[in-house]
Amino acid sequence: MRLDKWLWQARFFKSRTLAARYIEKSRCRIDGRVVDKPHATVAPDMVLTFALGARVRVVRIVALGDRRGPASEARSLYDEIDSA
Length: 84
Hints:
Elements: H1 3-9, H2 16-25, E1 28-30, E2 33-35, E3 47-52, E4 55-61, H3 71-75, E5 78-83
Antiparallel strand pairs: 1-2, 1-3, 3-4, 4-5
Helix pairs in contact: 1-2
């Protein structure tokens, strides 16, 4: 699944376009590797690191969603590893 689509489904961003712009302009990491392409592929058990506002989010992907559902469903797509 595309990184921008997963970030949108997990409700880190309000739109997929915003997620794609963020990935292109910011330093987002997948398993420690810097990515700047929204089409980067993600899969379960990968670790994402990215900054949102003043927080650095480190999350492990648990599942790939089928849709952008309610917040409770989105929360089941990842596990928070660490946040600063």
